[in-house]
Task: structure prediction
Amino acid sequence: VAQRLHLVRFLPGDVIIRQGEEEAFDFFIVDSGRCSAHVQDAEGLREVREYSPGSERS
Result:
């Protein structure tokens, strides 16, 4: 698996994965910085999770 990893850098505000995408085959590991997951629902756009190096899914 490690041989298939490659570094990707994102800028603040970049969309990494968009809600509803049918084909999302990528897997991301946050090495530095932070990113957040947002969902669009009846209440509007809201943050549901923040990720940072070493963060675990709860």
Q: What stands out?
A: Strands lie at 35-41, 44-51.
